[in-house]
Design a protein that fits this description.
With about 280 residues, the protein is of the alpha/beta class. The chain folds into three domains: about 5-115, Tetrapyrrole methylase, N-terminal domain (Cobalt-precorrin-4 Transmethylase, domain 1, 3-Layer(aba) Sandwich), CATH 3.40.1010.10; about 115-225, 2-Layer Sandwich (Methyltransferase, Cobalt-precorrin-4 Transmethylase, Domain 2), CATH 3.30.950.10; about 225-279, no CATH class. Helix content is about 45%, strand content about 20%. It contains twelve helices and ten strands. It has helices at about 20-30, 35-45, 60-75, 95-100, 115-120, 140-150, 165-175, 200-210, 225-235, 240-250, 255-265, 270-279; strands at about 5-10, 30-35, 55, 80, 105-110, 130-135, 155-160, 180-185, 195-200, 215-220. Helix 2 (about 35-45) links the parallel strand 2 (about 30-35) and strand 3 (about 55). Helix 3 crosses helix 4 (about 95-100). It is elongated, with a radius of gyration of 25 Å. The protein binds S-adenosylmethionine. The site of S-adenosylmethionine (SAM) has 24 residues, from helix 5, strand 7, strand 8 and strand 10.
Length: about 280
């Protein structure tokens, strides 16, 4: 019988945020794969967990996952923890899960803190529909591509950022998305937790005067549907009625519906549209 891989969410600051189940599981498994063993030993000592640890991090994740899969195949139960939060969310947990599933190993995830969800819920921005972009890529071209995609994103956008790159990222976001509403959630669950709900330009001015400190999550409002609609109107104003029809047909709208939409956009009757396209 193979062992089970337990993904164990650990606190993102406040140690009281660990669950009973995570503490029990960490005590019961045979081995804990930790992102930084020197960091996690403090957590283990605090909860009197004596299970052996092995390091599993970004730079050994592929080979170390092979090793952990072998241990699991031999019947040992393994827990995976990272420096903070839910393993697999912007940390090496993802690779281990992939390899375990490929090897037919059972994987389970013990829910708990994740900075992205904690920040979203207190952001004051829409929580019904959201997307998580994690850290923007450092590669310039890739980052530009993502920013281009985000321009049309209507869901609330969640980003992770390190304090020393915060100002640069906010500036790039303002250039790409305009002066959107933004919430910067810092030091979550810790003594100096702050939630700064503002707009991108105000945030940039603020951080030009005050050096960003502490871990943070940046949450930006998505593009409004009205804005998209206005842009579409502006984009068809230069078009002929035929070209305007084509715009909707290309989107997969049928002929009848396209006529209705073109008429509505231009404030004319469907018959007027029909007369033009029939000729
Ligand atoms: N696995 C983690 C999770 O579930 O949230 C995320 C790991 S990622 C390597 C680290 C990033 O998460 C930080 O750069 C920061 O953006 C965010 N983060 C983690 N802890 C935080 C906290 N207490 N307050 C604000 N942001 C935090």
């Amino acid at each position: 019988m193979s062992g089970i891989l337990y993904l164990c969410a650990t606190p993102i600051g406040n140690l009281e945020d660990i669950t009973f189940r995570v503490v029990r599981t960490l005590k019961e498994v045979d081995l804990i794969a930790a992102e930084d063993t020197r960091h996690s030993i403090k957590l283990l000592n605090h909860f009197e967990i004596k299970t052996p640890m092995t390091s599993y991090h970004e730079f050994n994740k592929v080979e170390k996952a092979h090793y952990l899969v072998e241990q699991l195949k031999q019947g040992y139960n393994v827990a995976c923890i990272t420096d903070a939060g839910t393993p697999g969310i912007s940390d090496p947990g993802e690779e281990l899960v992939r390899q375990c599933l490929e090897a037919g190993i059972q994987v389970t995830s013990l829910p708990g803190p994740a900075a992205c969800i904690t920040a979203l819920t207190m952001s004051g921005l829409g929580t019904r529909r959201f997307c998580f972009e994690a850290f923007l890529p450092s590669d310039k071209k890739e980052k530009q591509q993502i920013l281009e995609e985000l321009k049309r994103e209507t869901r609330t956008i969640i980003l992770y950022e390190a304090p020393h790159r915060l100002l640069k990222t906010l500036t790039e976001l303002a250039e790409a998305l305009g002066n959107r509403r933004v919430t910067i959630a810092r030091e979550l669950t810790k003594k100096h937790e702050t939630v700064f709900a503002t707009r991108l330009e105000e945030a940039i001015s603020y951080y030009n005067e005050n050096e960003p400190k502490g871990e943070c999550v940046v949450i930006i409002e998505g593009k409004s549907f009205e804005e998209i609609r206005e842009e579409e109107i502006q984009s068809w104003e230069a078009l002929t009625i035929e070209e305007h029809m084509e715009l909707y047909l290309k989107k997969g709208v049928d002929q009848k519906e396209a006529m209705k939409l073109v008429a509505k956009d231009r404030g004319i009757s469907k018959r007027d549209v029909y007369k033009v396209i029939r000729c």
